[in-house]
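Supplementary notes (optional reading)

For those who missed the lab, this is the record we used. Protein: ABC transporter ATP-binding protein. Length: 256 residues.
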Amino acid sequence: MSDLVLNVSGISKRFGGLQALTDVRMQIERGQVYGLIGPNGAGKTTFFNVITGLYTPDSGSFELAGKPYEPTEVHLVAQAGIARTFQNIRLFAEMTALENVMVGRHVRTGSGLLGAIFRTSKFKAEELAIEHRARELLDYVGIANLADYKARTLSYGDQRRLEIARALATDPQLIALDEPAAGMNATEKIQLRELIDKIRRDHRTVLLIEHDVKLVMGLCDRVTVLDYGKVIAQGTPAEVQRNPQVIEAYLGTGGH
């Protein structure tokens, strides 16, 4: 049995006259933290949006846990086993932290609309189980004490943690984090790194887009570098940092 969680082959995407992605290939193994970096406009977010169903690729294919995977609709992506966070936080601001995580958990429930309408015993038992799991996940990311606070009242760093808890609530095969360190101070970045490392130790798989090269190189098992929509390097952080194309295109610019 393959230990690949995500196998990406030959993904290309064009927007009008712009070739955003060209023949992108990537293999992410179970339990890895896999980094995706590159300059602004390199195609990182486009690639993220393709694998999570927001965009349809023009060519190429995916396998998720050894099975063909077609990310055509966002809700089906979550059911298939990929959960994502966004660069711009997308929480339900007026819901509590607990309710936000419970919403994520409903992807894995089965009592259906009629059960909710008639409040069947199965529905009630499922709701209790969902709440219990949501509280566990809030504790896991370190904000159990904030369960009953509205999401909008949480600090920026705690809102990021809440997003990750909500993503984990879907029991994903792969959790995709889109620039989770953006806007964080130094202390929050340390806490984020500790949380991602904890997720890896629990044999979960993380795909990380991040501008903070120091964070990526210190945390990731393998890294892919995009430039103008093309893969210019793949390998361990040490291998990538030594790659002349990477130094020229990204690390050597001093911009990040």
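If you only remember one thing from this example: The chain has two domains: 1-81+174-256, 90-171.
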